[in-house]
């Protein structure tokens, strides 16, 4: 259930940023859900493979910065996959990656500390 909540919130963040940043274009909420799913899957597979040697190289001291840059790269890969999703430049991808990281932190905290 947490995965579905996170997926919909990430899709909402992507759609919200597309309204505020003219360099992020997304067709509709359905496309945002698919983009959020693909970003999550790519980040868990390709992103982990890219992050591991970089974290070893920096001894984990720049872990957050590395995660941001790798997520921005994954966002650009998702841009290449979907025709209804476009990011013009690397800086908007970095902004989107930062927003998804902040969103993920808040969601993790909220879902771990929910009343049962």
UniProtKB/TrEMBL annotation:
Keywords on record = Membrane, Transmembrane, Transmembrane helix
Pfam families for the chain: Phage_holin_4_2
Q: Which residues cross the membrane?
A: 7-26, 32-50, 57-78, 90-111
Respond yes or no to whether keyword Transmembrane is given for this record: yes
Please give the name of this protein: Phage holin family protein
Source organism per UniProt? Mucilaginibacter arboris
């Amino acid at each position: 259930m947490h995965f579905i909540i996170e997926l919909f919130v990430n899709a909402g963040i992507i759609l919200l940023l597309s309204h505020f940043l003219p360099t992020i274009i997304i067709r509709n909420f359905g496309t945002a859900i698919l983009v959020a799913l693909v970003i999550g899957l790519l980040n868990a597979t390709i992103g982990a493979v890219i992050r591991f040697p970089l974290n070893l190289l920096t001894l984990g001291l720049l872990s957050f910065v590395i995660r941001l840059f790798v997520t921005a790269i994954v966002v650009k890969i998702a841009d290449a996959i979907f025709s209804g999703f476009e990011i013009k430049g690397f800086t908007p991808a970095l902004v989107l990656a930062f927003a998804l990281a902040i969103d993920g932190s808040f969601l993790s905290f909220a879902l771990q500390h929910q009343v049962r």
